[in-house]
Amino acid sequence: MKRVYMDHAAATPVRKEVIEAMLPYFDEHFGNPSTVYDMGSKIKHVIEEQRAKVAKLVGAKAEEIIFTSSGAEANNLAVKGLALARQKKGKHIIISAVEHHSVLNSARFLERMDFEVTFLPVDEYGLVDPKRLSQAIRPETTLVSIMHANNEIGTIEPISELSTICRERGVVFHADAVATVGNIPVDVSELNVDLLSLSGVSLDAPKGVGALYFRDNLRLMPLIHGGIQERGRRGGTENVPAIVGLGNASELAAKELTDKANHVRELRNLLVAGIHERIEQVKHTGHPVKRLPGHASFCIEAIEGEALLFMLNQEGIYANTGSACASKALKTSPVLVAIGIRPDLAQGSIVFTLNSSNTVAEVEYVLEKLPLAVEKLRSFSPIWRKETAVTF
Amino acid sequence: MKRVYMDHAAATPVRKEVIEAMLPYFDEHFGNPSTVYDMGSKIKHVIEEQRAKVAKLVGAKAEEIIFTSSGAEANNLAVKGLALARQKKGKHIIISAVEHHSVLNSARFLERMDFEVTFLPVDEYGLVDPKRLSQAIRPETTLVSIMHANNEIGTIEPISELSTICRERGVVFHADAVATVGNIPVDVSELNVDLLSLSGVSLDAPKGVGALYFRDNLRLMPLIHGGIQERGRRGGTENVPAIVGLGNASELAAKELTDKANHVRELRNLLVAGIHERIEQVKHTGHPVKRLPGHASFCIEAIEGEALLFMLNQEGIYANTGSACASKALKTSPVLVAIGIRPDLAQGSIVFTLNSSNTVAEVEYVLEKLPLAVEKLRSFSPIWRKETAVTF
Lengths: 392, 392
What we know:
Two copies of one chain form a homodimer. By secondary structure, chain A is α/β, with parallel strands linked by helices. Chain A has two domains: 4-10 and 257-381, Aspartate Aminotransferase, domain 1 (Alpha-Beta Complex); 16-253, Aspartate Aminotransferase, domain 2 (3-Layer(aba) Sandwich). The first copy, chain A, is 41% helix and 13% strand. Chain A has helices at residues 16-22, 38-57, 71-85, 101-112, 130-136, 159-169, 188-191, 240-278, 305-314, 334-338, 343-346, 360-380, 382-386; strands spanning 4-5, 65-68, 92-96, 116-120, 141-145, 172-176, 195-199, 210-214, 282-284, 295-300, 317-318, 349-353. In chain A, the strands form three sheets. Chain A has a seven-stranded mixed beta sheet, with helices on both faces. In chain A, helix 7 (188-191) links the parallel strand 6 (172-176) and strand 7. Chains A and B meet through helix 1, helix 2, helix 3, helix 4 and helix 8 of A and helix 2, helix 3, helix 4, helix 8 and helix 9 of B.
């Protein structure tokens, strides 16, 4: 059966050349980088090379990169690590209402540790208002964490504007850039951030690896305590093959970023226009312009998103209905609630995330099958049959 | 050049058949297990199969296994996750003086969170005394964490005796079994433990994966907060290829454990006897009998362990001088201090850890080269020239 995969925010296949680069580190070069003999020091050197490649992709210095086991771990290390290291200064942090679960639940953990958390609302496009951020900062605020782009609605936040406010007020700024690194240019100096999380998911790198950028000598409480790995900031033997995968994928991504963005933007525009043309009562979610180039998200009236996914699945089409991490946990997406989508409409969420491998033919295939699936589901829906003209 | 690798506690090459099993999960089966469509649910099923294999190796139920990114992460999750989840009951925990850095530094973190930590001393062999444990337990004690075997001195602790005391007193017991799983039989029921950490290092599994066994419905504060992965106990997309590696390696280890133990025990005995025969003023560290079968550890008088490693390295021999995680961090090993080794003698620590791939010829090669290296280093040593007959 034909497979049209458009859920690249959830997972991507690792590129052949990246797998090739990783392979020798499973057996031939298997040494522990913390050992003092030649096998160990060679591997240590390889890790430092990868650190430099990842750093280069985001405009950082190599020594400002910590490898983690995922973007989620990087987010946990940033939020909890910074807040706990600075708790003598104050116990108040600010996050947006549309953060990823790894930031949101790290903040909830801090609440249990007697921190106060302010959840900044967003507008109908998912944008954080710099004025509201400014008003929310208190003398005891130590950290603000706002994601670079949201993986459910694709909206790109005005990070440099937000971070500059924090810089002026002496508050550390963290951006979860898991959805942007590999999709759009990300530069820590331009963004003016102190901490930035990334993962391999938009780089076609392997699972099991992420990284945290931290500016200069920012103090962080380790999340995984242990030995001297990552200069004492993250214990546990380094996942060498995965780190090699991330490094190589970062190098390739840096070269191909513009071409990839142009390619997926064109396909995305075709997809969005085609869906509006072929399906009635569809709301395009997120910002119309300030959004990830390969990201298309909708709420479809009188549709249950998961049912739609199953029907598309039968046609070989793979999409998502929100964040993969939350798929089975939540009935209504907090992100869609935050942008003011009615709960019943939020049920009809569908998200397409594209990458370089997608083609015009695949988009046309989706534009053929999606309207049929929607029509079929709506034919079963008592709501749809009752309300023939719902307005948004 | 000949390579004789005897540092298997630090790292092992991944077995060919395990790499083969992992490969399809980098590209062919790359889906995110949290997604609801067929690609995702198939991967989810694969993960559950691996969970069952790891569970079987340690006599647990599949649902009692949480996958982590390392043994260190499993130790952090056990110690911090249990202590923080139970802090309303009490803020006192007990660990031994010879724990791995990931347990030790997790306990130090809890001290900063206003917990009290008792460090149990060990005897000259590194053994924890059950009576002292019993005396150290207080009404507010929530957790005892004692390692199954120590990776620097090879000593195997009397876990079931220690854990039974805790069970009777209503205290949760955690064993760091990173050094034992894959080397000796480990059964969570026989050991009578509530929590047990393991990693792939003694299973010839890949880096970047570990697991925590937790009995039944024990409450744990997640270490990595995030989505619904690992039933809400560990956020972040699952490292599918590494989990497949750990599962397959666990299955192989279960079959081969007895043969492996017999093989490495025989080689280890040859090595220990040969070293005592050929080198004077050598102290065999750890327990003579209650120890890991493939583990030989010594302190050599008037020798600097790291210098010895470099000389052996030049002959193609790879050994360690303590725990790989601490190699560059510490001048004197806390483990050797805890068993009462004089600081200057502790400098001369050397550790050989064997696995199935080692041979009699390799042991003979080490027995040829090691005495020459020791002799050479001692010829430079003013201490050795002065004290011709130091007694232990």
